């Protein structure tokens, strides 16, 4: 086990709390105007899948569990789960649906992800920070909106809702940040 400060925790990390392993689903550092900055973490207990929320001071020490972490390419999904392949050995691993959870919208065929395993079982997955998606549907621009600050809701080909600038329309490929589903830029391809 390695002790790290709470503010360094990220989505996909695995922590050990009182001898139980938890996969981090989201981590946010909150800096109030007054008072102590804290790290708000939502996590899933690996043993039974129960979701838990925890709050630590940003400088508090947390035990980060030692897990094996390997790069895998996403292949496909079937009734068994999500299939990934190790690019050098072609060894395949199946990741269960509860490990992927709501992050299924990020998966694209051939995508390289970091799969974290503990004693041979996949317990968490880390996606690339930026991915390219295609916009399938957007709301029309309201006349009189200024382009600088107004964003409109849009739906991607994977079923993810994102906020995009008014000039983005259906069929446009964009780059999004997987940490918070925010629009980054138009895809350069």
Automatic annotation (TrEMBL):
<dbReference type="Pfam" id="PF09285">
    <property type="entry name" value="Elong-fact-P_C"/>
</dbReference>
<comment type="function">
    <text>Involved in peptide bond synthesis. Stimulates efficient translation and peptide-bond synthesis on native or reconstituted 70S ribosomes in vitro. Probably functions indirectly by altering the affinity of the ribosome for aminoacyl-tRNA, thus increasing their reactivity as acceptors for peptidyl transferase.</text>
</comment>
<dbReference type="InterPro" id="IPR008991">
    <property type="entry name" value="Translation_prot_SH3-like_sf"/>
</dbReference>
<dbReference type="Pfam" id="PF08207">
    <property type="entry name" value="EFP_N"/>
</dbReference>
<dbReference type="GO" id="GO:0043043">
    <property type="term" value="P:peptide biosynthetic process"/>
</dbReference>
<dbReference type="InterPro" id="IPR001059">
    <property type="entry name" value="Transl_elong_P/YeiP_cen"/>
</dbReference>
<dbReference type="InterPro" id="IPR015365">
    <property type="entry name" value="Elong-fact-P_C"/>
</dbReference>
<dbReference type="InterPro" id="IPR020599">
    <property type="entry name" value="Transl_elong_fac_P/YeiP"/>
</dbReference>
<dbReference type="GO" id="GO:0005829">
    <property type="term" value="C:cytosol"/>
</dbReference>
<protein>
    <recommendedName>
        <fullName>Elongation factor P</fullName>
    </recommendedName>
</protein>
<dbReference type="InterPro" id="IPR013185">
    <property type="entry name" value="Transl_elong_KOW-like"/>
</dbReference>
<keyword id="KW-0648">Protein biosynthesis</keyword>
<dbReference type="Pfam" id="PF01132">
    <property type="entry name" value="EFP"/>
</dbReference>
<dbReference type="InterPro" id="IPR014722">
    <property type="entry name" value="Rib_uL2_dom2"/>
</dbReference>
<comment type="similarity">
    <text>Belongs to the elongation factor P family.</text>
</comment>
<comment type="pathway">
    <text>Protein biosynthesis; polypeptide chain elongation.</text>
</comment>
<feature type="domain" description="Elongation factor P C-terminal">
    <location>
        <begin position="131"/>
        <end position="186"/>
    </location>
</feature>
<dbReference type="InterPro" id="IPR012340">
    <property type="entry name" value="NA-bd_OB-fold"/>
</dbReference>
<dbReference type="InterPro" id="IPR011768">
    <property type="entry name" value="Transl_elongation_fac_P"/>
</dbReference>
<feature type="domain" description="Translation elongation factor P/YeiP central">
    <location>
        <begin position="69"/>
        <end position="123"/>
    </location>
</feature>
<dbReference type="GO" id="GO:0003746">
    <property type="term" value="F:translation elongation factor activity"/>
</dbReference>
<keyword id="KW-0963">Cytoplasm</keyword>
<keyword id="KW-0251">Elongation factor</keyword>
<dbReference type="InterPro" id="IPR013852">
    <property type="entry name" value="Transl_elong_P/YeiP_CS"/>
</dbReference>
């Amino acid at each position: 086990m390695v002790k790290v400060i709470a503010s360094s925790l990220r989505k996909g990390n695995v922590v050990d709390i009182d001898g139980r392993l938890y996969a981090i689903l989201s981590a946010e550092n909150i800096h109030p105007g007054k008072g102590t900055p804290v790290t708000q973490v939502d996590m899933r207990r690996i043993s039974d899948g129960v979701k838990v929320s925890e709050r630590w001071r940003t400088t508090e020490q947390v035990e980060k569990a030692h897990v094996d972490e390997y790069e895998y390419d996403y292949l496909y999904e079937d009734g068994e789960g999500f299939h990934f392949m190790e690019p050098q050995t072609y060894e395949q691993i199946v990741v269960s649906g509860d490990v992927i959870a709501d992050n299924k919208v990020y998966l694209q065929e051939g995508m390289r992800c970091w799969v974290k395993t503990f004693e041979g079982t996949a317990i968490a997955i880390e996606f690339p920070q930026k991915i390219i998606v295609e916009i399938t549907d957007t709301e029309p621009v309201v006349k009189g909106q200024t382009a600088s600050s107004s964003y409109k809701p849009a739906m991607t080909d994977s079923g993810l809702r994102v906020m995009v600038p008014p000039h983005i329309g259906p069929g446009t490929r964009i780059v999004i940040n997987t940490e918070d589903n925010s629009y980054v830029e138009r895809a350069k391809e």
